[in-house]
Design brief:
The protein is an all-beta fold and 126 residues long. It has strands at residues 3-7, 10-13, 18-25, 32-39, 46-52, 58-60, 68-73, 78-83, 92-100, 115-116, 120-125. The N and C termini lie far apart (40 Å).
Length: 126
């Protein structure tokens, strides 16, 4: 059974930093891309960043490029999202997701991602 468990959200002032983590269990991650989505109140779920587990290729939404960094620790089956220069518009629930794929294409369609974590709240105050 595939499980994704996020941690590390919280509250921070604008300009600050946070790191969220996602530990994955129950699956060999080599055929997977792991991604971070976020959903703000009243808005749809949008992809923020993703990393190909085998090969390490990365993707960033334009809204976070240069501020957020995705990384992985293979020994811990964990993916991280390091968030710097946070803005109030980054406030959302952040979800970790896993997509089994043979390509490097990262689909922004959340319905295509087969496994999800429970989410962790990130709040950025102005």
């Amino acid at each position: 059974q595939v499980q994704l468990v996020e941690s590390g959200g919280g509250w921070v002032q604008a300009g600050g930093s946070l790191r969220v983590s996602c530990e994955v269990s129950g699956v060999d991650l080599n055929p997977y891309t792991l991604g971070w989505f976020r959903q703000a109140p009243g808005k749809g779920r949008e992809i923020v960043s993703a990393i190909k587990w085998n090969g390490g290729g990365t993707y960033y939404a334009s809204s976070v490029k240069g501020r957020f960094t995705i990384s992985k620790d293979a020994a811990k089956n964990t993916v991280y999202l390091h968030m710097n220069s946070l803005k109030p518009e980054d406030t959302a629930t952040y979800y970790c997701a896993a997509l089994k794929t043979v390509t490097t294409y990262v689909t922004p369609d959340s319905a295509a991602w087969g496994h999800w974590g429970q989410g962790t709240q990130v709040t950025v105050s102005s």
